[in-house]
Specification:
Rossmann fold; 25 helices; five-stranded parallel β-sheet; 690 residues; single chain; 20 strands; 3 domains; 41% helix; elongated; alpha/beta
């Protein structure tokens, strides 16, 4: 019989490593890890199913540190339990290129499930993790063969609960009855500014009961047995998520800093660390952990056994359901089916051949009809604008849950819904999609108006930072929205989104460009995509081949982000181009119209459609110069901020650097100068200045 672990020493090991690492870095947050150490002993020591040797084991429990500033907690846990995170990395805390960044970063540190730091997003990611687990379990588990069965655990603080996104996330978790989601609230009553009581008076327990959660506590968060018992009780509840309220002391063990904001975000100092060691009875040197404490923490054998048992379960599943097993592995790996390439080609060619005049939001839905039918991993949704965003398809019925049991409601074929009604929760939707993508098994996409991407922006940024395949469908992308006026009309949004590193932004001009945009987005395994789509109808534009630039024209060139759409000959002029008009989205048809006006004036221009500046910017210098030849004046046309267009060496930009107006779209186009005549005049003026 194994000796009983010394839980006090296990907790103190976390406290020691946290204060030592922060002290050595002269930067960081020691208080939260010291306060949550006993909670961590209870969860990681007695409940969490994981395998340090294989952080990607499919059926592991997921742990998310929502209060990410307490990063030394998870780094200490990963080190102590046996992950590839040696003590040298702890000593290198917060230093350049270390695996122990200031806040936990997905893809950098083995065992970190999501990047946290912006408060409230971790718990929201966790809702996405738990949702993915629930949907995959329904889709793949069979009687006697349970291959998807794990919990999502979250540690969070009062900062997370103050952020509005926590309301969005918790409300949805309750509505979706996510019984495998267990959140432990580190209730220490302290933030950077001190005691939170003057500004945080929420009755948290009642708040979560109102969301439909199971609430346990308050309990003593420093009583390992009590926390462990609470987790065990929570695991018995399968029809709703659980919140465990754990009362703790920030900086636990520090004689002079505990229960003060001084413990929050700065080193304790050499003298206070000495006093803390004495108070804890921890006599070991900095970064030194006794072998018996390592032994108590070591999770390698237990993790190996847990994964081995699951492997046996999966082997039996594979024998009984070989095709399902193959599909599960493909989905979890994130690979597209071999048939995807043909599906994409067929979808683009069909769009080209039909040549429909539709809004690009409708073009998106047409593409989605094809892709969602071919890709069962696509999980759509909308923030209460389904009829406007057009994110639903015949293959994606609404996701619903049984009001009594919480089970996924299925159709006659046993299939659950694949389109989520997020309600008016843009930020929550975006961060939940990040969690779904991180869990694996799904490609999430969600829609709202482009203007409301402002609500989602930090989660979009986090997706880009974490290199997640998430697709944002942003409709009503310009003053073409019309009568809803400047509150809803996007001006700066396209330019702003293009500034986010590793975010691919597409503003397609017709059905073929939209189908290509979706194709690229689905193939972008390591980056999110934003699709900016019109409310107003857009005429299809023929994709002819340019004799001057054959490799930069036609359907195949669309995926490069910009291509030659029309040469002077297409407007009836047999002469070389004197200028280039660059346009995106709905303004491409305006550029074509301006080309014809200029042709009547005997001025030859090339029209370049640039649906994705972010993709075009990654092309070779040779390709870029083929599309935008040197020496030709360039005029950009887009119903939005002009700021981003000057990098292309433009002589002029027909855009908007003010807010919009409320009026019918055609009236607004004329008012703001989006007419063929004004574009033509602008080109002619640029040529005159040459």
């Amino acid at each position: 019989m194994a000796p009983t672990p010394n839980t006090q020493d296990m907790a103190n090991a976390i406290r020691a490593l946290a204060m030592d690492a922060v002290q050595q870095a002269n930067s960081g947050h020691p208080g939260a890890p010291m306060g949550m150490a006993d909670m961590a002993v209870a969860l990681w020591g007695e409940h969490l199913r994981h395998n340090p040797a294989n952080p990607q084991w499919a059926n592991r429990d997921r742990f998310i540190l929502s209060n990410g500033h307490g990063s030394m907690l998870i780094y200490a846990l990963l080190h102590l339990t046996g992950y590839k995170l040696p003590v040298a990395e702890l000593k290198n805390f917060r230093q350049l290129h270390s695996k122990t960044a200031g806040h936990p970063e997905f893809g950098i540190t083995p065992g970190v499930e999501t990047t946290t730091g912006p408060l409230g997003q971790g718990i929201t990611n966790a809702v996405g993790f738990a949702l993915a687990e629930k949907l995959l379990a329904k889709e793949f588990n069979r009687e006697g063969h349970t291959i998807v069965d794990h919990h999502t655990y979250v540690f969070m603080g009062d900062g997370c609960l103050m952020e509005g996104i926590s309301h969005e996330a918790a409300a949805l978790a309750g509505a979706w009855k996510l019984g495998k989601l267990i959140a432990l609230y580190d209730d220490n009553g302290i933030s950077i500014d001190g005691q939170v009581a003057p500004w945080f008076i929420d009755n948290t327990a009642q708040r979560f009961v109102a969301y439909g959660w199971n609430v346990i506590g308050p309990i003593d968060g420093h009583d390992v047995a009590a926390v462990s018992a609470a987790i065990a009780e929570a695991k018995k509840t399968d029809d709703r998520p659980t919140l465990i309220i754990s009362k703790t002391h920030i900086g636990k063990g520090s004689p002079n800093r505990a229960n003060t904001s001084k413990a929050h975000g700065e080193p304790l100092g050499a003298e206070e660390i000495k006093l803390t060691r004495e108070a804890l009875g921890w006599s070991h040197a900095p970064f030194v952990i006794p072998k018996e404490v390592y032994a108590d923490w070591d999770a390698k054998e237990k993790g190996k056994a847990a994964e081995a048992a699951w492997n046996d379960t999966f082997a039996a599943y594979k024998a009984a359901f070989p095709e399902l097993a193959k599909e599960f592995l493909r989905r979890m790996k994130g690979d597209l089916p071999k048939s995807f390439v043909q599906t994409a080609v067929d979808t683009v060619i069909a769009a080209h051949q039909k040549g429909e005049t539709v809004a690009s939001r409708k073009a998106s839905q047409l593409a989605l009809e094809s892709f969602t039918a071919a890709l069962p991993e696509m999980l759509g949704g909308s923030a209460d604008l389904t009829g406007s965003n057009l994110t639903n398809t015949k293959s994606t019925p609404n996701l619903r849950f049984d009001a009594l049991t919480g089970a996924v409601v299925t159709n006659e074929a046993g299939q659950g819904g694949r389109h989520i009604n997020y309600g008016v929760r843009e930020f929550g939707m975006a961060a939940i999609m990040n969690g779904v993508a991180l869990h694996g098994g799904f490609i999430p996409y969600g829609g709202t108006f482009l203007t409301f991407s402002d609500y989602s922006r930090n989660a979009i940024r986090m997706a880009a930072l974490m290199k997640l395949r998430v697709v944002h469908v942003f409709t009503h992308d310009s003053i073409g929205l019309g009568e809803d006026g400047p509150t809803h009309q996007s001006i700066e949004h396209a330019a702003s989104l293009r500034l986010i590193p590793n975010l691919d932004v597409w503003r397609p001009a017709d059905t073929a460009e939209t189908a290509v945009a979706w194709t690229v987005a689905l193939q972008n395994k390591a980056k999110p995509t934003a699709l900016l789509l019109s409310r107003q109808n857009i005429a299809y534009i023929a994709k002819g081949d340019s004799a001057v630039a054959p490799d930069a024209s036609g359907l195949d060139a669309i995926s490069k982000g910009a291509y030659v759409l029309a040469e002077p000959a297409d407007a009836g002029l047999k002469k070389k181009a004197q200028a280039v008009i660059i346009a995106t989205g709905s303004e491409v048809q305006l550029a074509i119209a301006a080309q014809k006006v200029l042709a009547e004036r005997k001025i030859a221009v090339r029209v370049v459609s640039m649906p994705s500046t972010t993709t075009f910017d990654l092309q070779s210098a040779e390709y870029k110069s083929t599309v935008l030849p040197a020496g030709l004046p360039r005029v950009a046309v887009e119903m939005g901020s002009t700021a981003g267009w000057w990098k292309y060496g433009t002589a002029a930009v027909v855009g908007i650097d003010t807010y919009g107006e409320s009026a019918p779209a055609p009236v607004l186009f004329k008012h703001f100068g989006f007419t063929a005549e004004n574009v033509a005049d602008t080109v002619q003026a640029a040529l005159a200045r040459k």
